[in-house]
Amino acid sequence: MHIPDGFLSTEVCAVTSVAAAGAIGYAAYRARDELDEKRVPLLGATAALVFALQMVNFPILGGTSGHLLGAALATVLLGPWLGIVVVSLVLGVQAVAFADGGIAVLGANVLNMAVLGALVTQALLDAAGTLRERTAGLLGVAAVASWASVMAAATATSVELALSGTIGLTTVLPSMLGVHTLIGVGEAAITVAVIATVLAARPDLVARRELGATA
Fold this sequence. Notes:
Layout: H1 10-30, H2 39-54, E1 58-59, E2 65-66, H3 71-78, H4 80-98, H5 106-128, H6 135-163, H7 169-201
Antiparallel strand pairs: 1-2
Helix pairs in contact: 1-4, 1-5, 2-3, 2-4, 3-4, 3-5, 3-6, 3-7, 4-5, 5-6, 6-7
């Protein structure tokens, strides 16, 4: 799903870069009080896992690639704000050090995979209400959120490519959604497995706060 340089217009790159920068800045501000000694190791482990998941790519029509995102996993474990920051850092390292996704389009990639992924996941967690207080409920919501976050990112990528004149929406959208429907299932399975493991060992590390209550 990483968009390479040259596939988005200057206008789309500019708009998505501004939006992504604003979202990261706001997320960092909201997350400033969430880091403590017990969460720092989890943050590092989550970033490493997300990085590993995103390094496995599958080519898709239109010059893009599909892969697991990890935004839902990061959001459930860390909360939406730290989740956005962690996935954004991973995407930045991939773009600069591994040329996985372009530099000029980094804002779009961050917006699609980190910001949308985290916000969609948290919105579904919030909608679940007290259901997520039970382990089975949390795992079920996490599975749905994982799949939905992948589909949201795939849709946003398709729209950006179409707005840039790179490829028609009627061509790229079915291709992206078709492939990512299956990728989303894989992401849901991995997300549930990791969260279940963390819940079994250290349930206190899983963020269960409401989006609006994260001060």
